[in-house]
Amino acid sequence: MKIVLTGSTGFAGAEILSQCIAHNYIEHVYVLTRRPLDARFSHKKVTQILHEDFETYPEDLLQRLRDEGVEACIWALGGKTKDLKSLDNSRKVNVNFVAAAAEAFAKGLAPALGPYPGYPGKEPKPGVGRFPFRFVYVSAWGAEHNQFRKLWVGDDDRKLKGAAEKAIFATADESEEKEGHRCFEAIALRPGGILAGSSEAMGTIITQAIIPSVTSGQLASMAIRTAFSGGKDGKRILENKDLLGDDWAMVNSLN
Asked: Which PANTHER family match (predicted)?
């Protein structure tokens, strides 16, 4: 698989990129970034594309990604309102950027793919492009679609994440059809706190039992799995508990 990745200079995005590089079935990663990546990400599987305006996707960029056969996007770019200049700037980064990319990829990349023999019941054979194009959005726990609802905690951030989710889902619902199937699919991942370290560490297990949280490794693993196979059990939104993976389910089964 060939994917587009954003947010790779951030904590979660860097882990996603590391796992993409190590993944046997990811052939190449096209990183859209405003500033060059750390030297540790210099790798034959990684192409950096310096991209200044995340609200605009010129045709030459889309043509390049089409020609390369890109099949999915993992969107890890974003930030909390308190860390950005203003609420307007936060809306630009957390909603406008996401919506613009989803629309551009749905119209400019997804129609280049088509159902492969045996779709959707079978996986494609090696070398055959995956269908549909999947847009995997790293959202946040508690994302709220209702922009008029009163929230006591994290009002702005939760509503902005919710607005972005609504935008990408609408784009998916309106995307072109190929042989009766939409060519663009959007899935939102809703992690709570993102933890460093091993998912097997006792401190991590205790934290995850108390508050919604995942390790960066768990989040990255699920983001990549979702890019390949879609939402777990066909879900469009994967909540924090869905991101914890099979190991956590095994721990719970011991009770």
From this structure: EPIMERASE, PUTATIVE (AFU_ORTHOLOGUE AFUA_8G07320)-RELATED, OXIDOREDUCTASE HTATIP2
